[in-house]
From TrEMBL:
Protein name: Copper-binding protein
Matches recorded under Gene3D superfamilies: Copper binding periplasmic protein CusF
Transcription regulation found in the keyword field: no
Cross-referenced Pfam families: CusF_Ec (PF11604)
InterPro entries hit by this protein: CusF_Ec, CusF_sf
Organism: Thiomonas delicata (Thiomonas cuprina)
Transmembrane stretches, start-end: none
Signal sequence region: 1-27
Keywords, ordered alphabetically: Signal
Length: 132
């Protein structure tokens, strides 16, 4: 006897597999903090708010460590964790900035919070500030 999947069954399996993959990605994004402490829960809530705001505005926010600042070129090298909304894992990357003046006062070793958006195929830092 031949067994074949119906179109409905195949579609249901594809949807289930896709949803499972998305759930794992969300779990990985939120795995870097402890939900059992007030600080961990606060960080979790901030991440959720940032993800929602970023999706609404087309911008994506993250925390990073400044590795290098090049004011003349209007670029900054940042080491950041995963940014799911941008489809990026944790990495070190050189970003152009929207305005060179944004780099004033920043130096290698600074912890920052930044927002970036995709412009003409490249991610541009649209806002950056020192993190506390």
């Amino acid at each position: 006897m031949k067994t074949t999947l119906s179109t409905r069954t195949a579609l249901a399996l594809a949807v289930a597999m896709t949803l499972g993959t998305g759930t794992m990605a969300v779990a990985q994004t939120h795995a870097d903090h402890d939900h059992s402490t007030p600080e961990g829960m606060q960080q979790h809530m901030q991440l959720i708010q940032q993800e929602q705001q970023g999706k609404a505005a087309g911008q994506h926010e993250a925390e990073a460590l400044v590795r290098k600042v090049d004011p003349a070129a209007g670029k900054i090298t940042l080491r950041h964790g995963a940014i799911p909304g941008m489809g990026m894992g944790a990495m070190t990357m050189v970003y152009a900035v929207k305005d060179k003046a944004m780099l004033d006062g920043l130096k290698a070793g600074d912890k920052v919070r930044f927002a970036a958006e995709k412009v003409d195929g490249s991610y541009i830092v649209t806002r950056i500030e020192k993190a506390e």
